[in-house]
Amino acid sequence: MTRPRIRRLAVAFGVGALLLTVHLHRLMVADRDVWLERSYLNRWAFRDVPTRRGSLFDRDGALIAEDRPGFDLELRYATFRRRHPIACVLHAANLAHAALGDAAPRRYDTDTDYAAALDELLALPLVWLGRDGSAWRSAAGLLRYRDDPGDVGRDLRFYTGAAVAGLLGLRHRDVAADLAKATRADAAAGLRVLDAIGPRAARQLGLDPGDHGGVRTALRAALGRRVAELRELNERLLAIGIERDPATDPASAPSLWDELERRRLDSEAWRDFQELPDADRDALGDHDFWRWLARERGAPLADLDEPGEWLALAPELRAELLVAWGARRDALRTALTAAERAAHRALDRVETRLAQPDLAVSYASVEAERRAAERAWWELRRRLDRGELLAADAGERLPTYQDEARARALRRQLPYPLAAWLGELRERLPGLDVRPTALRTHGTLPGRADLGSFGAYVGRVTPYFASDFDAGAGAATPSREAEDVLESVERAGVLDLADDSLPDDLEESLRRGAERTLRGHFSVYGRVGRSGVELDLDDLLSGTPGLRFIERDRQAREERMFAWFDVRRGRDVTLTVDLRLQALADRVVADLSGAREQALVALDAQTGDVLALAGCSQDEEAARGQQLSAAATWVLGNPAVGSVVKPFVALAYLEQLAADPDLPGPETFQPCQRSYGMPSGSRRFTCSHAHGADSQSVVAAVAHSCNIFFYEVHRVAGLGPLHTALRRIGWDADPDDPDDALQEHVPGLPGNRLMRSRLNPAGLSGYVQSIGYGVDVPALMVARAYAALATGELPDVGLVADPARRRRPLGFDRGHLQLVRAGLHECITDAGGTGVSLLGPLQRMGLADVAHGKSGTARVVTRSGETATNAWFALFLGTDADAGLVIVATAYGLTDGSGGRDAGAMVVDFLTAIHDSAPLRERYLGGSSR
Predict the structure, then answer these.
(1) Domain with 727 in it: what CATH number?
(2) C-beta separation of 238 from 410 below 8 A
(3) Dihedral, 382, 388, 392, 398 alpha carbons, nearest 10
(4) pLDDT at 476 over 60
(5) Are residues 529 and 603 in the same domain?
(6) For the chain, does the N or the C end have fewer beta carbons within 10 angstroms?
(7) What does the mean pLDDT of the chain come to?
(8) In Å, how far from its chain's centre is CA 844?
(9) Which segments of 683-765 does DSSP mark as H helices, in order?
(10) Would you state the pLDDT for residue 627?
(11) Residue/partner pairs of 210-215 with CB below 8 Å, 24 or more apart
């Protein structure tokens, strides 16, 4: 070799070495952080740990609601499609048929001949798996292959290699390399897939390299075993459903194979959907776009429900539709928000009219207007929460594109043995994952299988809605909660546990990965209280999801755990309700017939603790969409309390009489002759009986519910006593007292527009207002007011025990209070009392001496415009420091009802049930009052 040649070789090697050095320097120094980040991100990951909400208990520790740990079976179809041999065989066979222009693709089914599909793949010519797409005469008609039909061969190589590797326990990349090498060889012509994979498969099986028949037989047998595994899983899942519901028909029960088929179709649609341009994809993923097409453009959805059919439209037409939809969408968003605000203002205006007397307008018409305004507001609010710009039509079915990479639950709450069995088969069931979860479960009322009407007050828990992620500043959004968790991760220095010299960029990248994990957790598994106690106490009950910082292998399997950020469990909360009392109240409420709605409340007069809260509605349409039922609020028309307000009007009148010596006293009132004429002579009112001199006695007027007494009170004192009384007991705001007696929020119950008292409706005279017409109050607030009559102090009420709960002196003279209490006692014990029907049962229970009650009967206009009756009865046992139980019962919409008869019967039934239970009798009826 000559010296010049040696120099040239030396220069060539030197240049090569220099290039190699430069490349290594760039790789190991300049790009160190990039490759280090990729390496770490491939090795490390955050996994979420399910949130656990706090439990709810009754006052004795009986379970009301709790999170029950369990396991869900999830299917991530993208993983199943790419790694499970059955899915690979099915998708490959279907792809080959479709690319050749054949119809009738194979489906997941227990009687599908998977072995025949495998044979078809093994018999495919190797040249078809190369880059030459000429064999695939119909591939250009497939959306994913329209630009490069040769990609069919690439995908067939992938599916075939994955199927063979999965069946024989080989590495996929080795089988794929064999196929790729064979398709590039000049000798590929005339060879089949089995010829390319046969030698490696034979070595794995211990067969002769040329024994293709043995390889085919082994592959078919392995495929049969994988099918048998899925069949066994399907049978176990069906057995769970039948065990939980013996009435389930096994023939019609949801099958694993049916679910796999639905996911296959969704996967095909999703992958085609991903091929669309961004603007088309944004539109076709929006249900409002499809509604707009159907309604305003008249485009038949059935003709455009696949991405390929959408692309088949002329490009000019697609562009025109997208531009028109963009303008329409922006206008809809603006209009819907404005409409919601306008609906809210309209509802406020109607309620203002209800509070302002107007003799020219009927109460029924204004009440009907209020109901219509309320329905409009609720509907707009619901649509805004869901991000729904166009209202849905009943029964409409719109195209939906489901992300195949997103895990979706197949079955909830798997039994532990099945979850353990699936855990052992994790490697053989890729894409089918067992996920630890927590399910919100409820306790039961004694003697029932559920919580009865109290379940409506407990409320529901759901995952976060899409709109929750975009809530305003300060809201408990998933993003903010993710930030809280991440701060704890950083404070603990979790990343340092893996490597104490991580670059800042890598820490930030890992942090973003943790945030994505948490956002994904919240959007699918996060749970937030939506109504009732779960909503009102969500800040206490909701926990924070945990994170596991793990090291994983190349197949994303968890190898070891660096750190565990335990779930911050929500706080347990003890409610004031006694489930034993609640069960009795539910039974009493359900036993009443003939009413549109009925309710019963039991309250501790001393503490304001709600002991029972039961209500139900016979009008399901009216009750639908409301979060609470009758005991806390009303979902139907006019809930006038009637004569239940009279004791408070009497107290306020006596106070005014003491302050004004010139005010006429009761002795000047005209005797009750049942008929009463207004001083102007323009109208006459009636009383239920001719009470005679009762109208000149506070005690008798309260006991016998004499309307004439209260008409006379209005004649001499106007509406002053009524408004004074309502402000003292928290049924009306006091403009002169910023800390008035109103209780805007009941701890444990979320704020609800219908919980507010409504006063002085349009069209009602001050005379009838003085006997309780136009005074619309929820039963819970009536019970609060009668607790004040019993003790002399107005307690705030709540479903959560609170020793610091506010108590306000009622503010009436003690002597006046004793007079009214005497009237309430005689209401039950006097022969002419409106509650005398309760006397016998109360005597048998030994409660007649401490019982004080008041009936209320009001003729009202129902939701349908008919005349009906509200029946009320309020009772408390004992007075002052001995006061105990307060019970309020009401029935709305009776055809011919009476407070003393119908609502009083509910109170008697409730007390009798308590008396018949020795533990409840001792607790609530023991001694003189309890």
Answers:
(1) 3.40.710.10
(2) no
(3) -140
(4) no
(5) no
(6) N
(7) 81
(8) 47
(9) 698-704, 707-717, 720-728
(10) 41
(11) none
Question: Residue 864: phi, psi to the nearest 5?
Answer: -90, 0
Q: Looking at 291-305, 397-411, 699-713, which range is the least confident one?
A: 291-305
CATH number for the domain that contains residue 448 = 3.90.1310
In this structure, is the dihedral angle defined by the CA atoms of residues 550, 553, 554 and 555, taken in order, positive or negative? negative
Q: Give DSSP secondary structure letters for 128-171.
A: GGSS-GGG-TTGGGSGGGSS-TTHHHHHHHHHHHHHHHHHHT--
Total number of domains constituting the chain: 4
Is 810 in contact with 793 (CB distance < 8 Å)? yes
Q: Residues 65, 629, 588, 848: is their CA dihedral positive or negative?
A: positive
- Measured distance CA(907)–CA(600) in Å, rounded: 8
List of residues 6+ apart from 104 with CB closer than 8 A: 97
- Where in 420-468 does DSSP place strands (E)? 432-442, 461-462
User: What is the spatial distance between Cα 61 and Cα 84, in angstroms, rounded to a whole number?
Assistant: 49
Q: What size, in residues, is the chain?
A: 930
| Confidence band of 38 (pLDDT split at 50, 70, 90) | low
Structure tokens at 148: 């490069």
For residues 546 and 593, state if they share a domain: no
User: What is the Cα–Cα distance from 927 to 930, expressed in whole angstroms?
Assistant: 6
Asked if 905 and 814 count as a contact pair (C-beta separation under 8 A), the reply is: no
Q: Are 182 and 126 in contact (CB under 8 A)?
A: yes
| Three-class SS state of 761 | coil
| 23 within a domain of the structure (yes/no) | no
Burial label for 254, CB within 10 Å (0-12, 13-18, 19+), is middle
Q: Tell me 295's DSSP state.
A: I
Contact present, 614 and 600 (Cβ < 8 Å): yes
Q: What residue type is 462 in one-letter code?
A: T
Domain annotation covers residue 9: no
Q: Taking a C-beta distance cutoff of 8 angstroms, is the pair 706, 691 a contact?
A: yes
Other residues' Cβ atoms within 10 Å of the Cβ of residue 881: 9
pLDDT of 51-68, one tens digit each?
Answer: 778 999 999 999 999 988
Q: Name residue, tokens 């306790």.
A: 443
Asked whether residue 629 falls in the same domain as residue 654, the answer is yes
Beta bridge partners of 636: none
Q: Give the C-alpha separation, 647 to 775, whole Å.
A: 14
Q: Do residues 163 and 430 touch, judged by C-beta distance below 8 A?
A: no
Q: Which domain holds residue 369?
A: 286-385
Helix (H) or strand (E) holding 82: helix 77-83
Instruction: Give the number of other Cβ atoms within 10 Å of residue 147's Cβ.
Output: 10
How many C-beta atoms lie closer than 10 Å to residue 645's C-beta?
A: 30
The residues, ordered by sequence, that sit 6+ positions from 889 with a Cβ below 8 Å of its Cβ are 588, 598, 599, 600, 601, 779, 872, 873, 903, 904, 906, 907, 910
Cβ atoms 922, 914 nearer than 8 A:
no
Residue for token pair 């079976």? 73
